[in-house]
Design a protein that fits this description.
This is Aldehyde dehydrogenase. Belongs to the aldehyde dehydrogenase family. GO terms for molecular function: coniferyl-aldehyde dehydrogenase [NAD(P)+] activity. With about 475 residues, the protein is an alpha/beta fold. The protein folds into two domains: about 230 residues, Aldehyde Dehydrogenase, Chain A, domain 1 (3-Layer(aba) Sandwich), CATH 3.40.605; about 200 residues, Aldehyde Dehydrogenase, Chain A, domain 2 (3-Layer(aba) Sandwich), CATH 3.40.309.10. The chain contains 17 helices and 16 strands.
Length: about 475
């Protein structure tokens, strides 16, 4: 890995400045690598998961990778332009000029997770390549077939000094995070992010963290319950809930709780009338995560919650080794239950009630700031109150997850749900260095302003002017 990093940095420095044509060419090759091998990626994803819906893989991993890459290719010329800035009076009148140029940083490291192992490599890579950088990618050990495919294909579409992929387990990941990159992007769990920051700190590597947390759904009294519950179920059961942006728990008016649970149950049964042999429904990634989710459900039940398993076909999941898990709705979830303490990352949905919207806002605010917040309702004043009185990485109104698909919206968390952002122009800026440039006019400004000793009246005139 050190040799690859050294090679990439040397060739990067030799190439400077990185032309628009070179950036577009690399983006074109990245698009081709995914689009031309979409079927192989879908096969690899399904093999790694035990079963992964092919259509879901095409939507959430393949198309969701090609889209950002094409968007970057289309707009990179505009993003690259220097930005003129105002100068202090009266320097502009005397001929001074100031501007910002966006330079590539060099070699960017990407540590990718397992839940969307294609998209969460290629989407940040769009910004990395548009900004003119080289890239090294550490793939997840939980998706080894996808990782091996990336290594094979990258060698066909890129020289190793442009883009390189590295596989392996935790020891390789630790060594990767300790490399002196020019920027490091980590997508994954908050607990591991702490170790990533420690590893990067020794080399003062700037780090972008895309994490997760308990993203709430706040259902207003004015919400269309049938529509809202259908959209929550769609987001919760996509990838079997293994999404950093998945709705983690719901806050609903107490008098509407039963209607909400009925709506969730009806929507899940309509979308997934059966599960075990349903090609549309994805399996849990591995036995450890399946056991974890099962333990958390049992914990909630043991501590008094009502657990509703939405199993419309009455299938025997205990007798199956398919690692498929139906939607479990948890009513009466309390703070001492694990499902209300940890990010769930699976098809388990606690539903809690509130009396007043301020109670729901307080519930959100006493937890760590989430990656996303979702509000349903037509009451504009209430919507504004929820937006103004909460803090989250991003928001989708009247649906879930969809803000991530808007390329010109910065995507990122805040605090425990992440630091920094990417996507679209925000990604280009994240992976670029904003270099400030100032051009002095021909006149001796220092002398004119009294900045040269011996100091006198001109000096104090300048001071007074600056101090207003």
């Amino acid at each position: 890995m050190k040799n690859i990093l050294g090679l990439q940095r040397a060739t990067f420095m030799a190439e400077l400045p990185v032309s628009l044509a070179a950036r577009r060419n690399r983006l074109d090759r990245a698009i081709a690598m995914v689009a031309d091998n979409a079927a192989r990626f879908c096969d690899a994803l399904s093999e790694d998961f035990g079963h992964r819906s092919r259509e879901q893989s095409m939507i959430a991993d393949i198309a969701a990778s090609v889209g950002p890459l094409r968007h970057a290719r289309k707009h990179v010329a505009r993003w690259m332009r220097s930005e003129r800035k105002a100068t202090m009076f009266p320097l502009g009148l005397l001929g001074a000029r100031a501007w910002v140029e966006y330079q590539p940083k060099g070699v960017v490291g990407i540590i990718a997770p397992w839940n969307f192992p294609v998209n969460l490599v290629m989407s940040p890579l769009a910004g990395v390549l548009a900004a003119g950088n080289r890239a090294m990618v550490k793939t997840s050990e939980f998706t080894p077939v996808v990782a091996a495919l990336f290594e094979e294909l990258a060698a066909r579409y890129f020289a190793p000094e442009e883009v390189a992929f590295v596989g392996g387990g935790p020891e390789i990941g630790k060594a990767f995070a300790e490399l002196p990159f020019d920027h490091l992007l980590f997508t994954g769990a908050t607990g591991i992010a702490r170790h990533i920051l420690h590893a990067a700190a020794d080399n003062l590597v700037p780090v972008t963290l895309e994490l997760g947390g308990k993203s709430p759904v706040v259902l207003g009294r004015s919400a269309n319950i049938a529509q809202a519950t259908e959209r929550v179920v769609m987001g919760k059961m996509l990838n079997a809930g293994q999404i950093c942006l998945a709705p983690d728990y719901m806050l609903v008016p107490e008098e509407k709780e039963a209607e909400v649970v009925e709506g969730l149950t009806r929507a899940a049964a309509a979308m997934y009338p059966r599960l075990l042999d349903n090609p549309d429904y994805t399996a849990i990634i591995n036995d450890r995560h399946h056991a974890r989710l099962t333990e958390w459900i049992d914990d909630a039940r043991a501590k008094g919650a009502e657990v509703i398993a939405v199993n419309p076909a009455g299938e025997d999941f205990a007798a199956s080794n398919a690692r498929k898990l139906p939607l479990h709705i948890i009513r009466g979830a309390t703070d001492d239950m694990t499902v209300m303490q940890e990010e769930i990352f699976g098809p388990v949905l606690p539903v809690r009630s509130y009396q007043h919207i301020d109670d729901a806002i307080a519930e959100v605010n006493r937890r760590d700031r989430p990656l996303a917040l979702y509000y349903f309702g037509s009451d504009g004043n209430e919507r504004r109150r929820v937006l103004d009185r909460t803090i989250s990485g991003g928001v989708t109104l009247d649906d879930v997850i969809f803000h991530v698909s808007q390329e010109e919206l910065p995507f990122g968390g805040i605090g425990p749900s992440g630091t920094g952002a990417y996507h679209g122009e925000a990604g280009f800026r994240t992976f670029s260095h904003a270099r400030s440039i100032y051009k002095q006019p021909r006149i001796d400004v220092a002398k004119l302003a009294g900045m040269k000793p011996p100091y006198g009246k001109a000096t104090w005139a300048t001071i007074k002017r600056q101090m207003k």
